[in-house]
Amino acid sequence: MEDRSPIVLREQQQLDEQERAYLASLNLDFSSSGNDEIPPFLGLSADGWSSYYVGAAWLKKNSRPLVVHPKIDNIDFLSIFAEALSDNVAPAYFKKAYRINLDTPFIEDGALNSTLTPLMVTHFISVMRILLASGLKRNYVIREDNLKSKVRGHILPLRNLQKNILRGHAEKTICRFQEYSYDYPENRLLKRGLLAAESLLLGLRVPNNALLQIVRKCLLSFTGISSDITPQAVMSIRHDKLYGEYPEAIRLAKNILARTDFAISETSSTSHRVPEFAIDMSRVFEFHVLGVLRRHFLGHRILFQEYAGIMGRADYIVPSAQLIVDAKYKQYYTQKSSDILRADIRELSGYSRSQRIRNILKVEDNSEIPCLIIYPDGSYSSEEYSLSKLPILSQAKPMPGIQSFYTIGIPIPLMINS
Q1: Burial, 128: exposed, middle or buried (Cβ in 10 Å; 0-12, 13-18, 19+)?
Q2: Which of 261, 315, 353, 356 sees the fewest Cβ atoms within 10 Å?
Q3: Of residues 188, 184, 218, 185, the one with CA closest to residue 201
Q4: Quick one: pLDDT at residue 83?
Q5: 307-359 pLDDT, tens per residue?
Q6: Residue 35's pLDDT is what?
Q7: Which residues pair with 21 in a beta bridge?
Q8: What is the distance between the alpha carbons of residues 56 and 112, in angstroms, rounded to a whole number?
């Protein structure tokens, strides 16, 4: 029997010689579209080096799958994603942090469940908060009821004869009618998705109380709406007929239900299998840095992914400190300064020269704007990390030979008791 076992490695690691030979035998196309989408094969290079993406992917039909684990086990993804949610990261940007495909065969690797599930749950909650802020939609649904002393819609003659007339209840009439109601399949699916999200959060070793409170607050909006919906009804719901936040919320609810015991697919309840998915760890680190900056600049405005003209988008702008901050999910800053990539310095220099950014920071003359790069320093923390109360640049290291550029390393959060 041909080997179908996963090829397993960690971020920024190279396959061994035997696996590189297998990779070469597949004649894969490693070219990328060059846009913001996650590249094919989790960013794996032709010479077998993994990138900053973790997840699971099929290299080719009937081939061995590729599985990439994070650099360190037990990263507290849930707290990172919860920070992104509390900081109101736009769902459209949150969505770019990962991709999931439920249409291909699932891949054997139970360890990745703890990585994928928190991201999906948090994204779903973020979309639901926006959806509920504008209110649930109503729709026409078909009801059947045995009405007393009145008629609505169409009478069902045969059923009315059997249940009412022959039993001496001439005052009642079985009718089928349309009703404009909140209790229709799409809203039932969303409620079922919230209940599944609540169940997943409660099943964690250390439940995230902040997220649980948000989920339960969302569920209050579904009072009077049933959560009874069949797998067949779920699969029949069409995204293209919906509008607003509904299409994204429906898609995420389906994905979450497929991660629980809801029988949307035959493989959905298998705890040691995961669908094809990819998580961009560089974006995950951006969410972590955003939380660290929010705690340090408590009460001050922090602009995230702010438009900087032709230079693209700056990760963070802190107007009160006249500061530009960039998150780099790279550990070369822990090495000699000569290893710092020129591209990173050029990128931030471009942001600091953007007239739009300078206007936001209220820099009217030719003054230089300080730029700070925050990177993972290789350490890990099981507690919520905060910088000291000192000015942030006094805690950072100046880049040798580069004016007004600084770096500071922070730990990656781990799950408590991991």
Answers
A1: buried
A2: 261
A3: 218
A4: 78
A5: 999 999 999 999 999 999 999 998 766 555 455 578 899 999 999 999 999 99
A6: 57
A7: none
A8: 8
CA distances from 18 to 30, 55, 313 (A): 19, 21, 41
Cα 285 to Cα 371: distance, rounded to the nearest angstrom: 18
Each residue's pLDDT tens digit, 278-311:
999 999 999 999 999 999 999 999 999 999 999 9
CA angle 116-118-119, nearest 5°?
65
CA distance 123 to 97: 10
| Structure confidence at residue 233 (pLDDT) | 85
Question: What is the tens place of the pLDDT at every residue in 248-280?
Answer: 899 889 888 877 755 433 333 445 778 889 999
- Computed on alpha carbons and rounded to an integer, the radius of gyration of the chain in Å comes to 26
CA–centroid distance for 12 within its chain: 22
Pairing between β-strand 405-413 and β-strand 371-381 as defined by DSSP bridges: parallel
- The per-residue pLDDT for 271 is 57
Q: Which residues of the chain have pLDDT under 70?
A: 1-2, 32-36, 205-207, 239-242, 261-271, 332-340, 416-418
pLDDT of residue 266: 36
Name the packing angle between helices 246-259 and 113-134 (round to 10°): 150
